[in-house]
Amino acid sequence: EQFDFGIVGLGVMGRNLLLNMADNGFAVAGLDLDETKAKSLEKEAASGHQVKGFIVAEDFVKSLKKPKAIMVLVPAGKPVDAVISSIRPFLSANDIVVDGGNSYFPDTDRRFSELAKDHIHFFGMGISGGEKGARFGPSMMPGGDEKAYERLRPVFEAIAAKVDGEPCVTYLGKGSAGNYVKMVHNGIEYGIMQLIAETYDVMKRGLGIGDERIQEIFETWNTTELSSFLVEITATLLKKKDKSTGQQLVTLVSDRARSKGTGKWTSQNAMDLQAPVPVIDMAVLMRDISKYKEERVAAAKLLPWEAEGEEDVAIESLKDALYFAIITTYAQGMVQLKLASDEYKYGLNLEEVAKIWRGGCIIRAACLEDFRQAYRRDSALANLLLDEKIAEDLVSRQGAAREVIKVAVDKGVPVPALMAALAYFDAYRSETLATNVIQAQRDYFGAHQFERIDKEGLFHVQWDEVTG
Ligand code: 6PG
């Protein structure tokens, strides 16, 4: 019993987190059924660091100090249950099991109750930042048993990314709050990635801007209000050339996009909560459309569109449109978190969520500080669009979004996420919507009743008998 902390699953994330913990002075044990992964671990650790790899669950668990703290970092779904079953016989009351993967949140609730029977504390903690984040400072989103979190807080605060000295980790809320927040983080991630790709497409196919110039534009944008991890890596990856052909590497990457499910779960659950997240929906949908490659190739011939004439859009407008759409994406995700917090009793504090997303994670961006301030001004803010400062940012950029969409439509370049961002904005700022027509239709064919704006109560009329 000598190790402070144990990690199961020594893939890139698990291994890097473990080395990060060791850097911070913790004695850490790792478990992986793959012997090469377990054994190579000790070689990778810096000298003087206390690190050991195990291949047998019992030996691994027994090597940990009591009460034991174990983090599981294996693919979501069955592997998590398999790991829990393999270590459970060696755990006792007060031990802590943390699931650091992208688990589906209802699974976290189920595991929480199962382990609680043996007084084992379980919590789900979303971890963002990819390989480098894990190694040098991720953003972590823990939820579940608060007392258990408090015990592990020193470890997590030590390894987390820091922004102005503040660690990008904090206890978020009860039950599956941590996995839920990470799921929505990923939904927003999908949305922003899609918006960046659309902007690239408008530049390339819509405006015929050359590859090098596009790269420079993204690089410049990263020094503006658009400054963010995703804009930064886009600028970096657009620079890279394929070794053998000398071509820009990104142009050789297949356009069939894959996904592991977190974006889809965000959209699916948003529908259940009646939280409109159209940018995220479009991002999920575009990855799906991308898979129909053969059909798209055939359709390209059968369904042509020849754009007439040259179009021009100021680069500044492209930037403003992208910023506008990114802000609405965060706003949509934050509303979903608010509704989920009410529905699942998470007790989320959105100011804290914005705070821990400012560094370490994939959606870290300069604008998160603005959101944090917005929630600081009003912790019950229903939607970021209702914050005066954010509203100003959007109002001044909406013209640019409209301009870019017009050009994209003229040129036949698909920009569904940008369109969804603007449609959301226009719908949200509409004092009256045309949904009165829908209510009338429902009553016409199904006697579903409707409310009136001039009288209290529910009404049904025989529409055929009403004079025209
Ligand atoms: C992160 C990422 C990471 C991963 C997701 C998304 O925050 O570090 O979100 O968790 O990239 O699994 O992956 P897909 O695009 O494959 O769904």
TrEMBL record:
<feature type="active site" description="Proton donor">
    <location>
        <position position="189"/>
    </location>
</feature>
<dbReference type="GO" id="GO:0006098">
    <property type="term" value="P:pentose-phosphate shunt"/>
</dbReference>
<feature type="active site" description="Proton acceptor">
    <location>
        <position position="182"/>
    </location>
</feature>
<dbReference type="Pfam" id="PF03446">
    <property type="entry name" value="NAD_binding_2"/>
</dbReference>
<protein>
    <recommendedName>
        <fullName>6-phosphogluconate dehydrogenase, decarboxylating</fullName>
        <ecNumber>1.1.1.44</ecNumber>
    </recommendedName>
</protein>
<feature type="domain" description="6-phosphogluconate dehydrogenase C-terminal">
    <location>
        <begin position="178"/>
        <end position="464"/>
    </location>
</feature>
<feature type="binding site" description="in other chain">
    <location>
        <position position="190"/>
    </location>
    <ligand>
        <name>substrate</name>
    </ligand>
</feature>
<feature type="binding site" description="in other chain">
    <location>
        <position position="102"/>
    </location>
    <ligand>
        <name>substrate</name>
    </ligand>
</feature>
<dbReference type="InterPro" id="IPR006183">
    <property type="entry name" value="Pgluconate_DH"/>
</dbReference>
<comment type="similarity">
    <text>Belongs to the 6-phosphogluconate dehydrogenase family.</text>
</comment>
<feature type="binding site" description="in other chain">
    <location>
        <position position="287"/>
    </location>
    <ligand>
        <name>substrate</name>
    </ligand>
</feature>
<keyword id="KW-0311">Gluconate utilization</keyword>
<keyword id="KW-0570">Pentose shunt</keyword>
<feature type="binding site">
    <location>
        <position position="448"/>
    </location>
    <ligand>
        <name>substrate</name>
    </ligand>
</feature>
<dbReference type="GO" id="GO:0050661">
    <property type="term" value="F:NADP binding"/>
</dbReference>
<comment type="subunit">
    <text>Homodimer.</text>
</comment>
<comment type="pathway">
    <text>Carbohydrate degradation; pentose phosphate pathway; D-ribulose 5-phosphate from D-glucose 6-phosphate (oxidative stage): step 3/3.</text>
</comment>
<comment type="function">
    <text>Catalyzes the oxidative decarboxylation of 6-phosphogluconate to ribulose 5-phosphate and CO(2), with concomitant reduction of NADP to NADPH.</text>
</comment>
<keyword id="KW-0521">NADP</keyword>
<dbReference type="InterPro" id="IPR006113">
    <property type="entry name" value="6PGDH_Gnd/GntZ"/>
</dbReference>
<dbReference type="Pfam" id="PF00393">
    <property type="entry name" value="6PGD"/>
</dbReference>
<dbReference type="InterPro" id="IPR006114">
    <property type="entry name" value="6PGDH_C"/>
</dbReference>
<dbReference type="GO" id="GO:0019521">
    <property type="term" value="P:D-gluconate metabolic process"/>
</dbReference>
<dbReference type="InterPro" id="IPR013328">
    <property type="entry name" value="6PGD_dom2"/>
</dbReference>
<dbReference type="InterPro" id="IPR008927">
    <property type="entry name" value="6-PGluconate_DH-like_C_sf"/>
</dbReference>
<feature type="binding site">
    <location>
        <position position="442"/>
    </location>
    <ligand>
        <name>substrate</name>
    </ligand>
</feature>
<feature type="binding site" description="in other chain">
    <location>
        <begin position="128"/>
        <end position="130"/>
    </location>
    <ligand>
        <name>substrate</name>
    </ligand>
</feature>
<feature type="binding site" description="in other chain">
    <location>
        <position position="260"/>
    </location>
    <ligand>
        <name>substrate</name>
    </ligand>
</feature>
<dbReference type="InterPro" id="IPR036291">
    <property type="entry name" value="NAD(P)-bd_dom_sf"/>
</dbReference>
<dbReference type="InterPro" id="IPR006115">
    <property type="entry name" value="6PGDH_NADP-bd"/>
</dbReference>
<keyword id="KW-0560">Oxidoreductase</keyword>
<dbReference type="GO" id="GO:0004616">
    <property type="term" value="F:phosphogluconate dehydrogenase (decarboxylating) activity"/>
</dbReference>
<feature type="binding site" description="in other chain">
    <location>
        <begin position="185"/>
        <end position="186"/>
    </location>
    <ligand>
        <name>substrate</name>
    </ligand>
</feature>
